[in-house]
Amino acid sequence: MYKILVLAGDGVGPEVVREGIRVLKKVAEMAHLVFEFEEAKIGGASIDAYGEPVTNEVLKQAQSSDAVLLGAVGGAKWDGLEHGKRPEQALLKLRSELGLYANLRPALVDPSLVHASTLKPEIIEGVDILVIRELTGGIYFGAPKGIEKNHDGSSRAFNTEVYSTFEVERIARKAFEFARKRKRRVTSVDKANILESSILWRNVVSEIGKRFPDVQLTHMYVDNCAMQLIRNPKQFDVIVTTNLFGDILSDEAAMLTGSIGMLPSASLGDRHALYEPVHGSAPDIAGQNKANPIATISSIAMMLRHTFHLYDLALCVEQAIQLVLKEGFRTADIASANGEIVSTSQMGDLIIERMKH
Ligand code: NAD
Questions:
Q1: Is 333 a catalytic residue?
Q2: Which residue is catalytic, options 3, 110, 128, 140?
Q3: Are residues 149 and 179 in the same domain?
């Protein structure tokens, strides 16, 4: 029996998460497993109910779960709150409390959606990249940071990009381990020609790489990587990089694939894991049964693979998604000239109907 904490959140969060849970229930039925779902509030929903974006109680529930499924947080209603009280703070708190240091963002181009990309089909056909972003270190967390007044009344603002050996070692290890299950190529991205933190990053990744002689390691500067992702994305297998560079590059890689409604993610630590679609709460379409649930359902496939090691079932979910797309069914965000437009719940039905063991 597995315990899953469900944090649906705001906007389209509850709508897409509902479809994710239905897929998990179908998986349970197919494999004679029991998933126990515990539901709790997060983000704006938690602010409205308890006055804070995530409560200690929910953090404890997350710590005692086998996996966390998250929808999305945020919306105009809470935009005016001071920085530390905004819905997005819940995500930072969850990541740091659960020690989720590795963010996995696959960018996989579905053959049926090749034309949804802004790049030429011959460039993106067959793209299958896994971006692994360090998630709990670097400039987003480094100290000192702040905004100070200068003597002349102007201001001075600063952040610190800082990495310790152990932080680079553990993310590098994850990258090599994942590469072993794929095409055995790791590209480590840094700015070692300028930044000391990147010199350490490069040295440590190289050291860890020696323990994985069957995986080919290449180093690349971040500016070049940004360019290569558009020029020839098929050269990449696993990309591993820092928090800041990964934030930007994972979005760039993701957009190769078309719509944000298609993109799953996993955030892993040594003991905990959180799965969520990449997109936000999409307030413009919330409550209309229009959101694409595929990002969430693909995140479920990642959960089956990375937390529960149910590889066949993960594949079964992914194949069902591919089949539905191949048959021409589309939510509005990925609509094509001759495809049929379906709602969030209809897309869920279609995928579940096609799940075969
Ligand atoms: P967004 O991802 O919510 O929406 C961007 C655009 O993509 C919108 O047009 C939206 O309709 C569309 N879109 C998003 N998800 C979709 C889906 N599943 N199906 C179809 N279309 C989809 O980003 P935003 O508009 O910048 O942010 C809205 C709110 O979400 C903000 O409050 C922001 O802070 C929050 N946000 C939360 C997360 C998260 O919870 N992880 C991530 C990003 C943004």
A1: no
A2: 140
A3: yes
